[in-house]
Amino acid sequence: xxxxxxxxxxxTASTEDLKPLDIERRSVGTDxxxxxxxxxxxxxSDIHTARNDWKGSTYPVVPGGHEIIGRVVEVGNGVSNxxxxxxxxxxxxxxxxxxxxSCEQDLEQFCEKGATWTYNSPDKHIEGAQTYGGYSTxxxxxxxxxxxxxxxxxxxxxxxxLCAGITTxxxxxxxxxxxxxxxxxxxxxxxxxxxxxxxxxxxxxVVMITTSPEKGKDAKRLGAHEVLVSKDAEDxxxxxxxxxxxxxxxxxxxxxxxxxxxxKIDSTMVLVGAVEPLKPFHGGSVIGGRKRIAGxxxxxxxxxxxxxxxxGEHNITSDIEIIDMQDINKAYERVTSNDVKYRFVIDMKxxx
Length: 352
Ligand code: NAP
Ligand code: ZN
Description:
Layout: E1 3-10, E2 19-26, E3 32-42, H1 44-50, E4 68-75, E5 87-90, E6 93-95, H2 101-104, E7 116-117, E8 138-142, E9 147-148, H3 155-158, H4 164-174, E10 182-186, H5 190-201, E11 205-210, H6 216-222, E12 226-229, H7 233-238, E13 243-248, H8 257-260, E14 263-271, H9 284-287, E15 292-295, H10 301-314, E16 320-324, H11 328-336, E17 343-347
Helix pairs in contact: 4-5, 4-10
């Protein structure tokens, strides 16, 4: 398969900083769209993968698969939905089998044969290679995994919708959060700030549950009606047993019992952040009140397009800080030390 060399940034080992790399992209096939990347969001998952926190990273890792925005510069003969010049996005997925029962239900993220992730997955097109993410100047993707971006939205602010957006939208939608529900969002980071915006737009009574009291003002500006500081025992007691739904974006293992205590009878807490062992929790925390703990992984392509269209109608984008590609290692430090408002987005001009 013919390839083209493009500029990228990646990690060659879990302990190394990210640095400039050259990577190969396949030439445009019949069903492919070639995208000139303009912006790419920085998800905490990029850091987990670059640093091999979840094990299973194959180096070099070129992260940034999750939140790619760009313009179409070339399309294959079989492409019907996109043309040169279109504003498009790519999220966490670039391929799946298309025939298993998950794929048939538009849940490609749970493809039974294994979805191909935008980075750190075996590349089906270039033998022996891994997929490489959006910290690069261009990418070639099957049109089925390309999303259409509403032109009225701010281009850079749209990038994080492709991961932070869909990851918070999908559970709110699956668990049918509706007008008047009391919804808690735990963790005001990249995911959490989108969770607050969506829950607000759906008409819920939104409570930001945070460890950082200084973020309270921002939380309200983003759409929270109340702020609950989880380190404040009195405050936690006041909200006991009162939530219809809680979205938990904490990125590391943590105590579950205090948060489970906030749920009402028959209500659900959805975990999206901690892909690692949680501290043991007391069975009584869910037995009393018939409560549920659930999980959620990004969202399928159809649902991602629905979320983007909703954002287009309601003019919802992410609150971002734009950085140059060369600042990525500093940005990683700031994300892990909880100093980001509320998503870094790389201006890919800096790499070109
Ligand atoms: P982030 O920007 O770092 O935000 C996480 C927030 O959680 C922080 O801002 C902080 O908010 C809170 N937090 C951090 N450490 C905490 C602790 N020890 N205890 C309690 N709260 C803590 O991260 P993100 O990009 O939103 O990603 C969140 C997690 O979701 C990551 O692990 C990421 O890998 C994962 N993720 C999952 C999916 C999926 O499909 N399931 C998709 C994308 C990302 P406060 O200051 O407000 O407390
Ligand atoms: Zn499948």
